[in-house]
Fold this protein.
Amino acid sequence: LDRAFPRSPRGALKIARVLLALATFLCFVASNAHEAYTALAGLETGITLLFLLLYLLRLDAKMRWLFWPLADIFNSVIAALFLLVVCLFAIIVKSNKGTLAGGVLGLILLVLCVADMILLCKKISLARPRGRNAPAK
């Protein structure tokens, strides 16, 4: 268990993403919004929670067969694109106040996705060797 991860900027951002995605999901469910809105918010909650658990339990260090930060960047990019489209539709249509609130929270979640993507891009370097076989400098 990595006790320092929740206090790190990336950890705090992941926790904020999970909580905001959950709030967005609950707004869409409570307002009987279109199924696409609810599905996107639910999937974002689940996937972000899985990445949070992956880093929290240090499973990324044990499962080296995938470059997890890059997968996390792809998740953030795809989530940001889908959130942009779906939440703008939710705000424009605004069938009720719950859908409008979910759309606004989704746009805030989009900003957190972009911030997470920027933090991850600063963290990784594809030019530097990784793992135990890396030469000492």
